[in-house]
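The aim of this short unit is practical: by the end, you should be able to scan a pair of folded records and say something sensible about each. We start with the first protein, listed as its amino acid sequence and then its structure tokens.
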Amino acid sequence: MSDANPFAAPADRYEAVDVAVEMRDYGGIGRLQYFGYSVLVGIINNVLQYAAISAGVPEAVFVLTLLGLGVSIVLVVQRLKNLGYSGWWAIGFIVPILNILVGLRCLAAPEGYADHKTLDGPAKVILGIFVGVIVLGIGVVFVIMASR
């Protein structure tokens, strides 16, 4: 790695600091692809399950559920790879409560989050919406409990 500080001010105000910043290629899929593919997998899985129930083959629903879960885990592994995390964190996708953390991180965190730990604008908006929905849900529960 270079000894030059990429954040140092230039010695002369007309001289530019020439530093090659090493960028890591994370691979995987980005936020938008993850969201789009997840919605698509959910829609296709629900349509196939409805077709299986309508055809009178309820045993196929279990197989389709496992197939949808498998495809979802593959998507989570690819997204975690893009974030810089190990694919083994995808096991957390099937663990209750931990799946909220893994899913939220896959949906909100920008590429390379494991290395720089900073959120960008869209991630803050997504987290704000998530917190707003949680607060709204708690408020609705309190209103229902108070009306009894």
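Turning to the second protein, read its sequence before its tokens, just as you did above.
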Amino acid sequence: MGYVDLHNHLLWDLDDGCETPAQTLAVARLLVELGWSDVAPSPHAVARFPSGDPASAEARRTEAVALFAREGIPLALHANAENRLDEAFLARARGAGRRGIGPAQRWVLVELPFDAPVPALADLVFRMKDMGVSPLFAHPERCAEFDRPGRAEEVVRLGAALQLNLGALAGVYGRGAKKIAERFVSEGLYAVGASDLHRPDGAHEWLDLALDALEKRAGAEALERLLSTNPRRILAGEDLS
């Protein structure tokens, strides 16, 4: 089975990702070429973007499904959103406004600020788990809070999961993020790897580099676990391997 991408912004004209259907098609074709068969586009669940409206995001996903079918692109599209982990999200997560991953909705993609500390992170994870929500943290190698010694290990022990932004291994986000990503890979802290693709420009080169770097550092078995086995379990609402 192919890879599963649980973090990207390929749905057009919703947030800071693809702007046109043509860009969406280019991203989709690139992912298929590199081995992906499923994606869960993750438009930002924030009010300043059209994607802040769940109905608008779902309507665009439906449009994209029809577009891929017309163009013969074998890429399945699943429900998802990128949520800011804050009190507003926690209030939504208690009910129908969760905006989780796939039909199961057990796992939810969340992000922290890149530069600001989050001293209450352990409590936030505990509260999510208490309400039956399992957090999948987007791009932890780019967030200051996860640069704190022991922080990544702590949230994993509490039942959260970390998602590698593949571009970090290719140096897309600078030396600091690359160094942290390499350490987390080596220590087995990541549960999932994802593209976080926003646009097709230049993506083929760095995705190729990132996939190669990940396999060299972690091995083929870990590559399969991070890009296929665990993402599929998240879509199904299952525990991770």
